Amino acid sequence: MDMRVFGGSALTGDIDVPKDVADAPGIPVTYVPARNTIFLALALGYAEAREAQEIWIGVNAIDFSGYPDCRPEFLHAFQRVIETGTKSGVEHGEPRLIAPLVTMSKAEIIRRGVALGVDYSMTHSCYDPDARGLACGHCDSCILRRRGFEEAGVADPTQYG
After folding, report:
1. Whole-prediction pTM value?
2. What is the overall mean pLDDT for the chain?
3. Confidence of residue 26 (pLDDT cuts 50, 70, 90)
């Protein structure tokens, strides 16, 4: 789904991605309006049609930018939507939302990924990559990622532009 139809964010509209301001108070301009609500609604429809018992989501509420739809409170509220607004929820209390990363620090997530064999050189988290696809190193997401690798004691394989 092309979230640019909504705009309203530095990630989906014509707003500059802030640089070198990680941990600023308030919800940043990189918040995409209702992004996880939309994704979970689509996942819920798909899961219910296939009688799935779980929906997994990789949100994180510890080392994050302050997005309201990454918090445990949001996940609990959406679970209530499932339980009260769907046939499978009313009849079986399913599907259940599973968010294994929600209370882990970035360092814990990185260490867990290393233990599972994740090749972090194949990933980046940048909100504003350059034309070659290299991470900027200065947006909120890059700063949090670098900090997570440092705190985990793991070399950051990200190529920064």
Report:
1. 0.86
2. 93
3. confident
45 pLDDT higher than 80? yes
Judged by DSSP in three states, 12 sits in coil
Name 133's Cβ contacts closer than 8 Å, sequence gap at least 6.
none
* Residues 98, 69: Cα–Cα separation, whole Å: 14
Contact predicate 100/56, CB 8 Å: yes
Q: Tell me the β-bridge partners of 97.
A: 55
> Is the peptide bond preceding residue 95 cis, with omega within 30 degrees of 0?
yes
- In this predicted structure, what is the pLDDT of residue 161? 87
Q: Which of 99-131 are b and which e, b meaning 16 or more Cβ less than 10 Å from the residue's Cβ?
A: bebbebbbbbbbbeeeeeeeebeeebbbbbbee
